[in-house]
């Protein structure tokens, strides 16, 4: 009986906390997840459903989406949830959405690079971007589908052709690189990972992932060999998970966590919260690469301010120079795909 009362009291406290948070929201934020039945999409949708920042959760995929939505709809949180299957239902899934998160696509398997996913995922992102242009042209769009270095340019080119492009509103979600950097550095220095923040710039594949450890909060330092090993681990962290899963998939749970974090930041910015900062891969003139990830300040219309590179160490400057040709090649590949397919 005492245990029951304790649990009931705790549950009531959580419910009241959610209600208090929901009343502080100044706007009903409607969020769509495209690829909601997949390995990233399902846990991402679960995290979004629990948040009082989200009042409408629209789930889209090719199959099984109504079942995922029905399952989530039994959770006692405010977000009204709906599920939509197939291209013929994209209008219902996307109309009126404020935020669209796109994890749709095939996952990596052992031996595959993110570029190996290009042909399949490029077509998926192209088609979803076309739907966003038609049904929610003012939405903030976060792209998780790999290879992000190419899929963000693909979506941008599609929106340009549709006449709805706004470079402030489209993001490559590179938050997982930040989350990993925070976790790995906290582990190495025996810190609380919740209190560690490491900017990650560049892109979202291999050497284009550049953790700016010289700007970490709290300040940390490593010997050269340790720094190089840690940087390499962060750059290869996705492959680390693919190998550990031994053919059963890629990073899904951690990516869902990171994707939800980014989505919540977009929701907060839409609601007028100030000083919302995340790293993301965006159209940029900070370097020679037309797209580049940096810390950005978010606002109601998306990117409010690109905070740039900050002061880089000589080691980090060398990493940027090595990354730019790789980024330029991936960007051109994405842009060429749209021009050829149209």
Automatic annotation (TrEMBL):
Domain of life: Eukaryota
The name this protein goes by in its record: Malate dehydrogenase
Coiled-coil region list: none
Lactate/malate dehydrogenase N-terminal domain segment(s): 29-172
One Pfam short name: Ldh_1_N
Domain Lactate/malate dehydrogenase C-terminal: residue ranges: 174-338
PROSITE patterns, alphabetized: MDH
């Amino acid at each position: 009986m005492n245990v029951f009362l304790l649990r009931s009291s705790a549950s009531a406290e959580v419910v009241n906390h959610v209600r208090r948070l929901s009343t502080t929201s100044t706007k009903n934020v409607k969020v769509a997840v495209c690829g909601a039945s997949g390995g990233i999409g399902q846990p991402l949708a679960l995290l979004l459903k629990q948040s009082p920042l989200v009042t409408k959760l629209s789930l889209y995929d090719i199959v099984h989406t109504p079942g995922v939505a029905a399952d989530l709809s039994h959770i006692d949180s405010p977000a009204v949830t709906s599920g939509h299957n197939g291209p013929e239902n994209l209008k219902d899934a996307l109309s009126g959405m404020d935020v669209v998160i796109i994890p749709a696509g095939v996952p990596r398997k052992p031996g595959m690079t993110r570029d190996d996913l290009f042909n399949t995922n490029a077509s998926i992102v192209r088609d979803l971007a076309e739907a966003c242009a038609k049904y929610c042209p003012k939405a903030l769009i976060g792209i998780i589908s790999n290879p992000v270095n190419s899929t963000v340019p693909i979506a941008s080119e599609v929106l340009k052709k549709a006449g709805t492009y706004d470079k402030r509103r489209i993001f490559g979600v590179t938050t997982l690189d930040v989350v990993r950097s925070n976790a790995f550095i906290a582990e190495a220095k025996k810190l609380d990972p919740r209190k560690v923040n490491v900017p990650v710039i560049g892109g979202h594949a291999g050497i284009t992932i550049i953790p700016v450890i010289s700007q970490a909060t709290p300040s940390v330092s490593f010997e050269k060999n340790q720094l190089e090993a840690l940087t390499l681990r962060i750059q290869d962290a996705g492959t680390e998970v693919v190998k550990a899963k031994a053919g059963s998939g890629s990073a899904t749970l951690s990516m869902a966590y990171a994707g939800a974090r980014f989505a919540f930041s977009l929701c907060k910015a839409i609601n007028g919260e100030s000083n919302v900062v995340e790293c993301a891969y965006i159209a940029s003139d900070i370097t020679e690469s037309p797209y580049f990830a940096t810390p950005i300040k978010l606002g109601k219309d998306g990117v409010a301010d690109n905070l740039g590179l900050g002061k880089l160490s000589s080691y980090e400057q060398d990493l940027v120079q090595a990354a730019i040709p790789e980024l330029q090649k991936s960007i051109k590949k994405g842009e060429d795909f749209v021009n050829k397919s149209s």
